[in-house]
Design brief:
Length: 290
């Protein structure tokens, strides 16, 4: 059995324990390796944003859309490569004196009216009737955007999981992006979705919105070298030792994870758990395979 498959074997062996056992086992890595926080938990924590070349490129391009009043920007990625974390970085780093950033999470079956309602709720348009028609929702959003502009601020709408949006909902994105004055755009919309979104919007029926996406970026899986740096980075941010994994460990993790950060986190977390349980100071491939 390859080392990569043995890692997945180890992951499977953690299934079936009680919640109390799980909580106790989950705390082992922090205690054993003296981490301030667990470096590989599956959560969206901006302090763990690891700036690979691709992630930095996407960040710069999306920030360019905002700063230069570009209507629509697009970032696509494989699931688990960090697009949601990138949305959080943008949300937290934008100057609130200049921008009103909001996050809308798309979901399967979200209609164009539903998307408008989600946007309205996030930007503080709260006095709409439950069944208010689309034109009234749009009018309320326009009023809010104009009010923001009068106060020297611009609306930035970040829509995550955009691969769930259909033709009509994406056309509504185009409509929202049309809100402008002769001299500038009043709103920037940043779309984040899985790679399937790019395949979808290349079709003729999406041409009107696709042509508005002047700035596009793509996150890719990590290389083996980036995987090594990523693991060490997370250990350091967590207040621990960056060298608890020996050199021959990184190639195994990279092969098993495909360079997907979420999978790297899952495998490293499980490996740390087993090493802590056995009381070993390092996490070696032969230990993982046993």
């Amino acid at each position: 059995m390859s080392e990569a498959l043995k890692i997945y074997d180890l992951v499977d062996n953690t299934v079936g324990h009680s919640q109390a056992e799980f909580d106790e086992r989950s705390a082992l890595p922090e205690k054993h390796f003296k981490f301030r926080i667990n470096p590989f938990l599956d959560n969206v924590n901006p302090q763990f944003f690891f700036r690979t070349e691709a992630h930095e490129d996407a960040y710069i391009k999306m920030k360019k859309c905002i700063d230069e009043n570009i209507a629509v920007g697009l970032t696509t990625a494989l699931s688990g490569t960090g697009k949601t974390l990138l949305t959080q970085i943008l949300l937290t780093e934008l100057d609130e004196a200049k921008y009103e950033p909001v996050l809308v999470l798309a979901y399967p079956g979200l209609t164009r009216t539903g998307l408008l309602r989600e946007c309205a709720a996030e930007i503080g348009v709260g006095d709409l009737a439950p069944r208010a028609p689309m034109h009234l929702i749009m009018s309320a959003i326009q009023e809010r955007i104009v009010d923001l502009h009068k106060n020297g601020r611009k609306l930035v709408i970040i829509i995550d999981e955009c691969h769930f949006l259909g033709v009509e909902a994406l056309q509504m994105v185009r409509t929202l992006s049309n809100l402008e004055l002769p001299e500038k755009k009043l709103v920037t919309i940043l779309l984040f979705g899985e790679d399937s979104l790019l395949k979808k919007i290349n079709k003729p029926e999406y041409a009107s919105i696709f042509n508005r996406m002047f700035v596009r970026a793509r996150l890719r899986p990590l290389s083996e070298s980036e995987t090594r740096q990523y693991i060490k980075f997370r250990c350091l941010v967590s207040g621990g030792n960056a060298n608890i994994f020996p050199d021959d460990f990184y190639a195994v993790i990279h092969e098993a994870s495909g360079g997907i950060p979420r999978e790297i986190n899952r495998l490293c977390h499980t490996a740390l758990l087993e090493a802590a349980r056995r009381g070993t100071a390092t996490v070696t491939p032969d230990l993982i395979g046993q």
